[in-house]
Amino acid sequence: MGLVQRLANTLAFERRCIRSSFVAQVRRTLPVRLHLRALPARRIDALDASGYSRDAAPPAWRIGVLCGALLLASACADPARERFERAEKELLSQKMEAALSGYRYIARDHPQSRYAPAALLRQGDLYGGYYRNFPAALEAYESLVYNYPRASEVPRALMRTAEIHLLQYLDPSSAAADLERIRKEFPRFEGEDEVLFLLARAYGAAGEDERQAAALAELTERFPKSNRAAEGRWMLAYALLGQRRYADADREFRKLLYLSTERESTVQARWGMAQSLEGMGDLEGAIAQYEALQGGAGDPAHVTEKIERLKARLRKP
Predict the structure, then answer these.
(1) Which range marks the domain in which residue 307 is found?
(2) What average pLDDT does the structure give for the chain?
(3) N vs C: which end of the chain shows fewer Cβ within 10 Å?
C-alpha cells in the first residue's frame, strides 16, 4: 500500500475520532497534501505517486506521526473504553441503572478488554453497596478473581468479598481466609492497613484473640499514621481488657490518653485505664483515674458510685 493510500486511511480514522482534541492536534501536524514541485521530465519517471524516490525511504518523523495517528485512531475506536467512560460519568451523575448496564455490557461483550476487570469491580460495588444484592456482588467479585487472577483490581475484590462475608453473612472464617490470601498473594497492596483492620475484626468475631491482637499490633506498628491504625488502637486496648490482660490493656489506654486531642477520647482512655487498674488490683490507681473523670464523664453519678465502692473495698481489712 502506497503512502498516499495509508494517509487516506488515517484521515478516515481521524474523522471518526474528530471529538478528540489530541487527534485534532495531530491532524494539524499531519501532512494531508503532497506537493509535487515541477520537475524535469527525466526525474518524473524516478518518482512514485507519493513524490518520493522509489529507492528512498520516507522521512522517519513522517512514519512516527503516521504510526501515532493510527494507534490513536485505534484507541478512539475501542468500544469498551467508550462504554466504560460513559458508565463512569453515569455513576457520578447517580444514574445507577445506566451505569450498571454499561459495566455489565463490558464484562459480557468485551471480556478481553483491559476495562473488563474494572467493570466487574464496579459492578460488584454497585450490587453490594447500592442495591444490597450481596449474592450478585459476590458473583461479580468471584468472576473477577477467577478470570483475571493477576489484575490490579483482584485484591480489592477479595477485600470486598471479605467485608460481605464478615458483616453480612457473619462468616468470619471465610472473611479471614480472603484477607490472608491478599496478604500472601499481593504483599504490596496499597490498602493493606484496611486489610489488617478487617482481619483483626474477623479474628475477634471468630474468638481467636491472639491472632486479633497480633493483627492489631502489626497495624499500629506498620501504619501509625493511618486512620485505621487509630481505630485499631482502641480495638486492641478493649480486646486486651476483654481478655483480662489488664497490664497490656493499661499500657494501650495510656498510649491513647497521650495521643488524645479531644475531650471525649480523653474520657474514654481514662475510663479504660481505671478499669484496667481495677482489674490489676491497683484500687488506689483506679480511684485516681475515676476522680479525674468527675465532671467530665457522661454519667457523673455512676463515676461517684464507682469511687465509693472502691474506697469501701480499701477500708476492708
Answers:
(1) 244-317
(2) 82
(3) C
Which residue in 275, 227, 284, 282 sits closest to 252, CA to CA? 275
Percent of the chain with pLDDT over 90: 63
Structural domain contains residue 300: yes
What are the grid coordinates assigned to 238, written together?
478493649
Domain boundary, last residue among 46, 75, 104: 75
154 in a structural domain? no
pLDDT of residue 301: 84
Q: What is the pTM of this model?
A: 0.69
pLDDT in tens, 78-88: 899 999 999 99
Cell of 272: 479504660
> Which of 75, 104, 123 represents a domain boundary (last residue)?
75
Read off the CATH number of the domain in which 272 is found: 1.25.40
Q: How many domains does the chain have?
A: 2
- Dihedral of the alpha carbons of 275, 281, 283, 284, in degrees to the nearest 10: -110
Q: Check pLDDT > 90 for residue 215.
A: yes
d(CA 14, CA 12) in angstroms, rounded, equals 5
Q: Spell out a b/e string for 159-178, using b for 16 or more CB atoms within 10 Å of the CB, else e.
A: bbbbbbbbbeeebbeebbeb
User: Residue 264 falls within a domain, yes or no?
Assistant: yes
- As given in the structure block, the three cell numbers for residue 97 are 441503572
Q: Which amino acid is at 127?
A: Y
Q: At what angle do helices 283-293 and 263-280 cross, to 10 degrees?
A: 160
